[in-house]
Amino acid sequence: xxxxxxxxxxxxxxxxxxxxxxxxxxxxxxxxxxxxxxxxxxxxxxxxxxxxxxxxxxxxxxxxxxxxxxxxxxxxxxxxxxxxxxxxxxxxxxxxxxxxxxxxxxxxxxxxxxxxxxxxxxxxxxxxxxxxxxxxxxxxxxxxxxxxxxxxxxxxxxxxxxxxxxxxxxxxxxxxxxxxxxxxxxxxxxxxxxxxxxxxxxxxxxxxxxxxxxxxxxxxxxxxxxxxxxxxxxxxxxxxxxxxxxxxxxxxxxxxxxxxxxxxxxxxxxxxxxxxx
Length: 277
What we know:
Elements: H1 5-11, E1 28-29, H2 33-40, E2 46-52, H3 57-76, E3 84-90, H4 91-94, E4 107-111, H5 130-142, E5 154-156, H6 163-187, H7 198-218, H8 222-239, H9 245-276
Parallel strand pairs: 1-3, 2-3
Antiparallel strand pairs: 2-4, 4-5
């Protein structure tokens, strides 16, 4: 999401005066562009955003549901969960800036935590002529990462706007995102399993061992990977009805191994598609 540079200097410092409405403390009404990007670009929390207008009837119906959703996650939050911020953006005030390209109202999006630093490339200003410095500063205004939102971090909700559907949406995105980050950790040889939660450390070690002992040797071997997939799927099928704690832990490791294998297969498929282009 990009905004025109000259709008940053004017609007990001302005606090928009919004109608005083009785909202829950769990939901924050956005009052400035600066506030919006500051919250959305945090690296330690998710951000749920509701874009709405006062004249939209569906927005009015959603309002108490969204408020209840925010209160629900405020109550059930625990120290092991990544926090969720709940924002609402009045598009009658932020239409030309934060609400561009929206297909209608209300729109609900979940922004995943930032994983990359918000830094601009370092430039050698002293070596530039005046017109070059001027042009670079203009480009910097337009590309300031502090006032942009990486679209790969944004997941738009599409479904019935009720408490259960919205809650399932949040839990699904968080669960998938957690799994993806866990898998990336396993493949990252520079990181060790002590960085994970204690409950995940044994699983992390099992994943790293599986990658080192098995997957790394099968990389590029499509037939070998397919054979390994069939082996893992057969193990899950054979033990799926056993509810003992020992077998449950075993299945947890096997499912992780299957996820790691799928990750390798996806990488090979992406490489193959790129080569064809």
